[in-house]
Amino acid sequence: MTPTPHAETAAARSASDDALTRQDLEAVLAVTRALAAPFDLRTMLGAVTDEACRVLRAERASVWLLDAGRDELVLEVASDLPPLRLPLGTGLVGRCARDGVTINVPDCYADPRFDPEVDRRSGFRTRCSVTLPLVDHRSALIGVMQVLNRQGGPFDARDVSLAEALAAQCAVALSRVRLAQAQREAERLQQELELARVVQLGTLPAAVPVLPGYAMHGLFLPAEQTGGDAYDIALVPQGLLLVLADAAGHGIAPALLVTQMHAMLRMAIRLGADLETAFRQVNDQLAERQTDGRFVNAFVGLLDPATHRLRFISGGQGPILHWCAASGQFTRHRATSFPMGAMPIERLRPPVEIELAPGDLLALVTDGVFEFEDAAGVPFGVAAVEDFLVRQPQQPPAVLTHGLLAAVHAHAGGAAQTDDITMVMLRRDRA
């Protein structure tokens, strides 16, 4: 004869049998007080199963937690078993989780829903069981508790009522522990983000260098606490180094990648490498180390202050805007190579070389400016950047960068920033 769930067996018992005694209630309250103490997850679940065995006079209890992503239950507490996974719907535990009902079975081996595999693994002999769903305050399933082998015979209706009260307390405690874990994880992540932010900001120039005949400025505004952009303006033995970098994505992973690229490039330049050698070496090292397909759009240029000639390589970064004071027009330069780190370089195109005449402006701007959209989804665009700069040809670079940022936000009309914004402006004095 096939045993029936608790919902069926309880109907055949009297209401007085179902009622919890004062002693039962005191036992539940004692468990509640015990579970109010601060616990890690495994310690808390161990305390739950110990109390369930004591209160219900059972030989064993276990807790299975739901892995919603895989539709499986994971055995978290069992003294003589390794971690075990069970698909939803398999065995009494899986059926309880799938249907969300308490199942009371007086003879497990006579029930076709019972899966004896756990007994075979542990050497334990299951006689009777009560299996209960664990649901959180939003009525969502978070796991299953199972109690085995009541001393003196099968679990009766009063035992089931007591077990359900214990299961409710277990679910509350489990939700509390998970919430505390999530809070600690969030705090740890926040600390890591803050550390990454400090490291990243530490790689940016503390102040722009002083170069007679030139004015320059850089601006970095990440979309999140850390960003995938970076810039550099530094005097090196080869001249004035200009770098603008934009790693794919934004957040901590692109921030670490662009910081790594920036550090390797700066070291190569300071060790005396020429522009082509430094770009190739850094690119090939990044391509060798990256396994997740990430890359960096990067402009790397060296200005010779004596000849006023700028040589640059742009790996995926563009357009490069050069305003010619004599003609009053912009020249747009495209990227000269694929993004840094995308693949090893077999053949590198010669660097682009331009001359900065008196009054000329070089504007390096990342996609966070060009692609900043308003509420209707219209991007700011390259033409809008050029129009803004043309209207203020004599303003210092610091004024231009902050003014352009204000113009972008005015265009956005309150829309949130979704990408990092970085700018580098270099102007040669007219005198």
> Low-confidence segments, ≥5 residues, pLDDT <50?
1-17
Overall, the morphology is elongated
What is the ordering of alpha helices and beta strands? HHHHEEEHEHEEHEEEHHEEEEEEHHHE
- Identify the CATH architecture of the largest domain: 4-Layer Sandwich
The top-level CATH class of the largest domain is: Alpha Beta
Oligomer: single chain
The major pleated sheet works out as:
6 strands, antiparallel
Q: Strand fraction band?
A: 15-25%
**Based on helices, strands and strand pairing, what is the structural class?**
alpha+beta
What is the count of helical runs? 12
Output the CATH topology of the largest domain.
Phosphatase 2c, domain 1
Q: Report the mean per-residue pLDDT as an integer.
A: 83
Head-to-tail CA distance between termini: 103 Å
**Integer-rounded radius of gyration:** 34 Å
Strand order of the largest sheet: 3-2-1-6-5-4
How many domains, as an integer? Answer: 2
Task: Name the CATH superfamily assignment of the largest domain.
Answer: PPM-type phosphatase domain
**Helix share, percent:** 25-40%
Number of strands: 16
